[in-house]
Amino acid sequence: MGQQTVLVLDFGGQYKELIARRVREQHVHSFILPGDTPIERIREIDPIGIIFTGGPSSVYGEGSPDVDGEIFRLGIPVLGICYGMQLMCHKLGGEVTQCSVSEYGVTDAELVVDDSPLFAGLDRAQTVLMSHTDYVSRPPEGFRVTSRTAHCPASSMENAERKLYGVQFHPEVVHSVHGKEILHNFLFGVCGAVGDYDMRGYIARQIELVREQVGEKRVILGLSGGVDSSVCAALLARALPGQVTAIFVDHGMMRKNEGDEIEQAFRGRELRFVRADASERFLSKLAGVTEPEQKRKIIGAEFVAVFRDEAEKIGGAEFLAQGTIYPDVIESGGGSAATIKSHHNVGGLPKDNGFDGVVEPLRGLFKDEVRAVGRELGLPEYLVERQPFPGPGLAVRIIGEITREKLEILRNADAIVREEIGKLEHRPSQYFAALTNMRAVGVMGDGRTYDYAVAVRAVDTDDFMTAKFSMLPLEALAKISRRITNEVAGVNRVLYDISDKPPATVEFE
Ligand code: XMP
Description:
Elements lengths: L4 E6 L5 H10 L3 E6 L4 H7 L3 E4 L25 E4 L1 H9 L3 E3 L5 E9 L13 E8 L2 E4 L5 E6 L6 E4 L4 E4 L11 H12 L8 H16 L4 E4 L4 H13 L4 E7 L7 H9 L5 E6 L1 H8 L5 H22 L5 E3 L4 H6 L25 E3 L7 H10 L4 H4 L19 H19 L7 E15 L2 E14 L7 E2 L4 H14 L3 E6 L13
Parallel strand pairs: 1-2, 1-3, 3-4, 4-11, 12-13, 12-15, 13-14, 15-16, 18-20
Antiparallel strand pairs: 5-8, 6-7, 6-9, 9-10, 10-11, 17-18, 18-19
Helix pairs in contact: 5-6, 5-11, 6-11, 8-9, 13-14
Xanthosine-5'-monophosphate binds next to loops.
């Protein structure tokens, strides 16, 4: 028997990824498809359960997301969340009432039955997160209300015989205190999940698939040292020993010791590791360039050129591997076609890229799962837990012209920033040093200095689309400042960047 799957059908909910992750955390495989996925496709997938996400629409709204009513006759358990519950109610002949005010926030719910499979083992009093305007005012025939809140006469409903369940609240968020148990009850109690999804199994399946796809042919991969490309390389080294070449383009704008660390991590694995020291090439192209976008373009173009040259040197390869992960796939429409991220380090290869195919063994994984696979494959913790680092490297953290001297100053200051912030109990999502182009007067011993000002940047964010600067403890900032001004020649001032995104960005350029 194949692996069990729970299908998440998306009706525009902001929590769709979270729902799939919560299911996977309970060792049940799950993935997301649009709410209007044809019923034949769902039959083919043959999920053990289906979860409808929430969404901002009203079932009465024009063009609001709909679902084929046949889905309720497949005999597959369905859990409708928020809009998903309203849609289930509406399709099955119950009544949804449009409300003028929204209920939003953490609320007390009371179970009104004590034999609901969804709430098995839970107390009558529940704390849940509500976020809705419409509500179910009359459940469809054959359904019963299983809980209510002060403002919502049916905060959940069920037809246990048909295995159809609805919850108005969001069990996937931590604010719903027993949300995890509720999902567990649905998965294991209602759907008959066995918990057959884990990273060891994922690795084993991918090894099989990749071997089938590539056969005896050769694979080439651009290794940036980031989490995704590193884990991809380690997985392919295991799947295709001796057939993989990983090209690490060292553009000279990596962080302190980074190139050596990456080389070290891949030494001894069953792949050919090529470290292309191209710093001279990059720096001469960047000489005198100060405009941020121009810097990025030069680096992007040079990246592709170096990668091509190195690929040629080793006599090419039939397949290109990429560390695309599941959120990239969802973002780009979730289609089945292979998508190449334009900002990927290989530089957005054109369709007729000369390869027989693209190998993307991490396509099915969320970031935390990629890290787990990395650990399982024995990659060192500093690679697996690495914070995001932009493709153009330190170039986007140096304002003005890039020179070897400035790179050296920034590398040393950045190493101190990362070391000190890394010791804090609360670690920001991303933290680093940037080199401003500002020089200021200072004093050292008896002499006057005229040196650079380093900026410390630390942000907290969930998605990097918006970010808040971190409220770092002043003592930590003081220590960073003293260490940088003492240990890094050429710096006499340290500034802390207290800008949010927007209006700033995380990086400086
Ligand atoms: P910004 O500066 O746009 O950064 O607020 C948001 C996040 O994206 C990272 N970043 C990049 N990552 N190639 C990358 O792979 C790039 O060119 C690039 N530019 C920014 C940045 O580090 C932050 O995490």
